[in-house]
Amino acid sequence: MKKRAILMVSDDFLPNVGGIAAHVLEISRALANLGNRVVVLTRIYDPEEKYPELEIHDNIEIIRVRTSNYKKLRALEFIVKGKATLKKLIGLEQFDVIHSHKLITDSMITKVPFSGLKIFTNHSSTFLNWYANKEIRKIHFLLQHYQGNISPSNELHTKIQTIFPKTPSINISNGVDANKFKPNELLRAETRIALGYSDADQVVMIARRLEAKNGVRYFVEAIPEMVATNPQIQCLIVGDGSERTYIEKFIKEHKLQHHVTMRTNIQNHEMPSYFNAADLVVLPSLMEATSIAGLEAMACAKPLLGTRVGGIPEIIEAGRTGELIDAKSSKAIAVGVELMLANRQRLFDYGIAARESVLNHFSWEQIARKTVRFYEACQSQIGASNEASKAR
Q1: Domains within the chain, CATH numbers bracketed
Q2: Lower CB count within 10 Å: N or C terminus of the chain?
Q3: pTM score of the predicted model
Q4: What is the pLDDT of residues 121-152, one digit of tens each?
């Protein structure tokens, strides 16, 4: 396997919490572990300057572009400064691949002359909204310069193919570090004690950014019915976002404080503790690629209850690793939780099967190898196209 110099461009990266930031870190680390040179170009708002502009992390070189106090201008700042930095980098070193991850900022930054391969991984809910609203010209403008498109769900893969039928495209799921995320009974006991849970409590967890697309509101609105049916239920919400105020207000108005624990600004390295503390993990998303949080829960041997949207049915095998329900339905969540918690042995069996599925299909090494093979396929297609052009 040829070793490559890969320049990752991502508007979203450490220390941010969320799926794309985690994905870029893990795929970069896995590609580096295969012997590739990986550089990540990202941005950061860091007024206290806790994070250096240049850092080596797990054999990955991280270059951070600092942005200002003006939140609304940060993306634009990254486009301008990031493009200048990108041009400088590709002028100093011969990179084989530029691989970007954010629909708008990264795509604008990578519109520069480059002799290598440009790849885009499409994680974007904005892409899905634009596609649904037939705003195809926006998508075409942003993505037309890429020579290969990766999608972490069949839904994204199918839709991007309809816009760019001649551009190589592949569905490669997200992955998970099964050595970091794994069952740990001691960690489970310690975390449950720290959170104030008893052995009898049944902990139902969501690990989501508190944004509309993640359906957290439907989960929260299901809690009154859940605890009325089963008073032993404790709900653990890990995440932060724009819907936090609504959620906290709902919990207070319905006097659910004794049944709900919220944790915000939790770093990814802390997540194994919370997943291990849970008995069931819910993915109430309205749109989703391959949920990294879902895979992390599965790696910790936790069964999933998830909605039939995007890539969620691709990781949940209904009746074996979890169950699937309709989206946008608090009733479906409440009933699904009740049915799954009713049979502890089945819940345990689902968890064992969930970890087995992760080990067999979703390791980051497997994802990285698939990614490299896609690079090779795209490069071969470009070479064949160039030869055909010469022949004409």
Answers
A1: 5-175+363-391 (3.40.50.2000), 185-361 (3.40.50.2000)
A2: C
A3: 0.88
A4: 999 999 999 999 999 999 999 999 999 999 99
